[in-house]
Specification:
Blueprint: H1 5-36, H2 43-53, H3 58-80, H4 89-127, H5 130-136, H6 141-179, H7 184-194, H8 197-223, H9 228-261
């Protein structure tokens, strides 16, 4: 019989450690702002991380979402065609991506691309004892290293989700025009008519949550690297796997809560 208690204990320890990382980071930022009355980090540092997280991820998110939207519309249309319900394809693509697939796919790609970079950078700094040097200088490694990265992931994830949704709908509109004779203008109109405010709000809230989780997990894995260069590689792999698993898990919990609160 497999003993699950060590795995559960380890998972709970990781969750508590990540939660404390968030608390300490916010506390360090708040103390600095109250004492110095200025931003906890230079704006240039934040914009650099925002450029990497947001602008740098746009081509990947757009390309993958376009093909996924195209595929979803094609398969959905072929399932509905025998019943003469091809007109439901725009609604299926719009609701599916705005509420579910857009934030989820974006979170997975950001975790793989940006989260791995965050972990590798911070892990290399830990191995090279640069983080200890920052601590010795009294500069606050959490506000300098963690806060701009987490804030960039938190704020840019909704923007990337919008890109994902728009590209998925573009792919769906293109394939629907070719395969099911649905005009592109009619596709977009039907998509907007079938979207509800709660679908958009759910997607935006998921995006913020996923961005926060990815940033925290990546920074935590980077700051807890052990074992030199090999440890950096192990931590990077663990960061990607943990972030993707966490995003999918929280997405499931979010959907259960949302259906329970808004069953109709």
């Amino acid at each position: 019989m497999i003993d699950l208690f060590p795995a559960v204990r380890s998972a709970l320890q990781h969750v508590s450690s990540i939660a404390w990382l968030l608390i300490y980071t916010v506390q360090e930022m708040g103390d600095h702002m109250l004492r110095r009355r200025r931003l906890p980090f230079r704006p240039s540092i934040f914009f650099e991380q925002a450029d990497r997280t947001g602008v740098g991820s746009v081509p990947l998110v757009a390309l993958v979402s376009f093909f996924l939207g195209l595929t979803m519309a094609l398969l959905t249309g072929h399932v509905l065609a025998p019943y003469g319900q091809e007109t439901l394809v725009p609604a299926a693509v719009a609701i599916g991506f705005t509420r579910e697939l857009g934030p989820l796919i974006t979170g997975i790609m950001v975790a793989a691309r940006v989260g791995a970079a965050f972990t590798a950078e911070l892990g290399t700094m830990v191995v090279a004892e640069e983080v200890e040097a920052i601590e010795a200088m009294g500069l606050g490694p959490l506000r300098l290293l963690v806060s701009p990265r987490v804030l960039a992931a938190f704020l840019l994830m909704p923007c990337l989700s919008v890109v994902s949704n728009m590209m998925a709908l573009s792919g769906g509109a293109l394939i629907s025009r070719w395969a099911f004779d649905i005009p592109m203008q009619g596709f977009w109109q039907s998509s907007l008519e079938n979207l509800f405010i709660r679908d958009i709000v759910a997607g935006v809230l998921k995006s913020f949550l996923f961005g926060l989780l990815i940033g925290l997990i990546a920074c935590y894995k980077g700051l807890t690297v052990r074992g030199g260069a090999a440890g950096v590689g192990t931590a990077t792999t663990s960061s990607v796997v943990t972030a993707i698993t966490t995003v999918i898990g929280f997405d499931t919990v979010f959907n259960i809560v949302l259906v329970a609160l808004f069953p109709d």
